[in-house]
């Protein structure tokens, strides 16, 4: 089926005409060729198969397509005078510092920008009454920050007034704001961009999407994802060792993935240690002959042990509110039901499954040694692995190229292995999820040999 994405929905907003020559000429046009500049008329196709293109039945120029990322010959902001700010919002994710560093180095070293600053503690830092002073960001300040986990700017959840945030940008003379954050942060960024547009202010707002769950659509794989599933894979390996060492050994590993099970799938595929992968996109039943508990008991009988990987958002429909313990979000949960940004906190499927497996094996008088592992915050806070670091710096470079060329209200992403510009409205319009009929889930089924359905 073709997607409903249209050329109009994929059009990126521009602040105005690009009149300045790009200072990158000395890097990319030095040998008498301009080949590295992006042709402003070129597009990256939305679809990737002939059948999808055929289904649309439109002329080539009318096919939905993305604006390509990359450096432009002519840019909107005068390099020497542009003033830039960076903010990180939402939960931690490997690679945040890599992106900050990539932005500062590209801005200062290649575009000649002399003033870059950082807002502290997320959007709260853009509201003066919160009392978080802005910090200067220089190439010296960001040196080696990629070796640290977390974000040197700090982060937060919680709503802030977009009018006040826009006032702050105006008062500080900011020309470009880079927002590094998840779906909520991108909605916040769009809110600021909308205020600036309404006030006819030529200030760019560019998002670099951060999602440990890889649940933002149209951007390819999100940064930090590879590091995250590598850490999760190490926990699964540990669970396998534990399970094989005991009579009736079961390793149960709960990994992140509130609405999308990508970390669970990739971590399980990384070393073929899992016997069952449970994700939010594929509902399962616990009881009955074809249910998960019976399947698990059979697997332990057949092979002596088993490893179960469960994404935090899996099986939520099995948990009644009375039985559910909310997933710990102790840093920022004002109530059991929602966090500071209004996101619903999930019931803890890991603890629930641990208890149900224990009582089920007990009732069947089948020996069980269960080890429950929850790598939790250890995944979010580690420094990025080299593959992610490379991706982060390239995303940051693409974001700077877009910003200096006067784009706004957009995020950078990858499509068909090319950097592209995606309007924020598109990036938050749907959630990227594992398709139960897609090839990733098929790989998981093949690797685990778990039943096609446990319903
Ligand atoms: P994570 O991946 O950790 O969920 P996130 O960016 O989605 O990242 P949130 O805590 O949901 O994290 O949001 C971060 C910031 O964006 C908060 O300051 C929040 O108030 C703001 N925000 C969230 N949703 C919206 C929205 N719909 N409109 C405007 N701002 C929002
Ligand atoms: Mg979010």
TrEMBL record:
Substrate binds at residues 211-213, 256-258, 312, 377-380. The record marks 184 as: Important for substrate specificity. It catalyses: beta-D-fructose 6-phosphate + ATP = beta-D-fructose 1,6-bisphosphate + ADP + H(+). Mg(2+) binds at residue 183. Its main location: cytoplasm. Residues 83-402 form the Phosphofructokinase domain. It comes from the Bacteria. It is found in: Cytoplasm. Its cofactor is Mg(2+). One of its GO terms (molecular function) is 6-phosphofructokinase activity. The active site is at 213 (proton acceptor). Its EC number is 2.7.1.11. ATP binds at residues 91, 157-158, 182-185. One of its GO terms (biological process) is fructose 6-phosphate metabolic process. Pathway: Carbohydrate degradation; glycolysis; D-glyceraldehyde 3-phosphate and glycerone phosphate from D-glucose: step 3/4. Pfam families: PFK. NCBIfam families: PRK06830.1. HAMAP family: Phosphofructokinase_II_X. Catalyzes the phosphorylation of D-fructose 6-phosphate to fructose 1,6-bisphosphate by ATP, the first committing step of glycolysis. Belongs to the phosphofructokinase type A (PFKA) family. PPi-dependent PFK group II subfamily. Atypical ATP-dependent clade 'X' sub-subfamily. Homodimer. This is ATP-dependent 6-phosphofructokinase.
